[in-house]
Design brief:
The complex is a heterodimer of chains A (about 325) and B (about 325). Chain A is mainly alpha-helical. Chain A has helices at about 1-10, 15-35, 40-65, 75-90, 95-120, 125-140, 155-160, 165-185, 185-195, 200-205, 210-235, 245-255, 270-285, 290-315, and strands at about 160, 165. Chain A contains 14 helices and 2 strands; from the N terminus they run αααααααββααααααα. Chain B is an all-alpha fold. Classes of the chains: A mainly alpha (about 325), B mainly alpha (about 325). The interface between A and B is large, with 44 and 45 residues.
Amino acid sequence: MSAATAVLRRLRFSREVVLLGVLIALVVVMTLLDPLFLSPTTLLNTSRFFVEVGLMALGMTLIIITGGIDLSVGSNLGLVSVAVGFSYAAGLPLPLAILFGLVVGVAAGFFNSVFITFLDLHPLVVTLGTFALFQGLAYGLSNADAVSDFPAWFAYFGQAYLGPVPGQLILFVVAVAVVWVILSRTSFGRYVYAIGNNEEAARFSGVPIRRVKIALYSGTGLLVAMAAVIYTSRVYTARADTGLGLELGVISAVVLGGASIYGGSGTIGGTVLGVLIIATLQNGLILAGVPSTWQLFILGVLLLVAVFLNEFFRKSEE
Amino acid sequence: MSEARAPAERGGAGGVSLRRLLRRPEAPALVFLVVLVAAFTLANDRFLQVGNLESILASVAVLGVIALAVNQVILCGEIDISTGSMLGLCAVAAGAVATSAGGLLLPLLAGVAMGALAGAVNGFLVTVGRIPSIIVTLGMLYALRGVILLVTGGTWITGIPNETRVLGIGKVFGLGYPVIVLLLLFVVMELVSRHSTWGRNVFAVGGNRRAARFAGLPIDRVRFLAFVLVGVFVGIASVIYMGRAGSVQTNTGAGLELQVVAAVVIGGTSISGGRGSPLAALTGAVLIGVILNGLVLLGVPGIWQDAVLGGLILLAITTDVLRRRLVGDKA
């Protein structure tokens, strides 16, 4: 192992290059398993399935860079799905119902940030609580029921194509660009890293920590809400268990992308690669006929291996 | 902080004793529990009968036993959210042995061994792997559930023999074994927590890890043992669970990890580690049992259970912060 790290250090491989190598290797293996895998149609089709996780991972990246975490994203997604579906079923016009869903998502994120900033509580505990709260609200308000009699145009959000390109892929690319600019080209982005590196020092340097965190968690709520609308449209059903367990994939993607769970480092490029690797792996497992029961196991183990390698390489870099 | 302290001091001697009471980490939960029990007794005069209280205790035995162990992990400043899947896996191991070999001792040993193994993996990854416990146990929550599905192939284990089920349904002098085991383990944990070296070290590690390290305490061993203890207690709880349910399903224990953490923090153990007690974990578990029982009495549909639980966690951690500010404690 030490020889490998020495080689890595000598070649000055950045994490993104390594991840890109892993992704290419995965694609090659998948193509060998199934020649259809590399066709543009399959690849573009696959993209429909990772956009939701990808959108949430963008917000999660920034949160994890500040040293925080949000375990409630999956539950929030279910809550927004229920908010859209059931406010529509109750008679609200669909555009307003979608707007209402976005508001609910942002409000949920804001709710998290209020506990985290004003009570100075660890995000882990707060979002563990809201994980249960949002999910419980979604179940309770929907009466564990589902809504699926949407008008035809609702399908645009999750099933539309522009030529061969799925609509949500374009939205994802735009979101990636926006979040990348925010993180690496604005003072807000510098604040995010500053908080993660040393919150105390950031506070004394005049970084508006509360405002940054409130914006981060609320913004992530907005990304979750967008993902919820796309998801609800894609499966054409609004129900409470929509986002069940999604937080694992989201956090795995961010950590695989190289963000340190202790805060202070991480990039949007890395996260996007992390999302793509997990999506390719999941898609490949399905193509290879691996039973879905394995997927939970593999995703769980993948998360552990990713974090372990992360901290291992980080130490050898120092 | 001095302004925040002023109201409590105004009361003179009475204020001082009130402050001392407030300093007990489990005080708010105990007061809340007494108020709730009084309210339910007024609402329904059968609530306070021995039989009903016993059945509430029995219903939270699995939760309480696991909470007693997770309490130690949280006191160390770590967390374990893998207990739900771990319970399922231990129950599968214990159930497999129970249906093939029978008896009580062998299934119990199988469950405890499986739990200790899973707990050791958690502890190893946290201490040697240097991965934060929340990530380790989140990964394990899913990985272990995957293992359950792989091992069982999605089928239930049924036909648990009666001699194995005794830990779940047996009674001595009208007191069920689940209650006896819970109270016994509570006493053991109080003794361990107060009088053993490891028990004291847990508080030191959770209170100030750097100071504990400089004092020469074996930080990694203390934390590793806490994670293994969770596995052992989950193993014991799995046999209680199996005894009560009579079968093992693939979704056994799903969502329990949340209730366990809720029980510990609602009871008053600080989520940041270093303060709390086994009594807090027990109080929290009983409080959750009383509340869930009360929801049924009040006719609230079961689907609201998660919302109530989440609200309670938030309420508990908020109260903890406010209480600390009131008595002028530092974080």
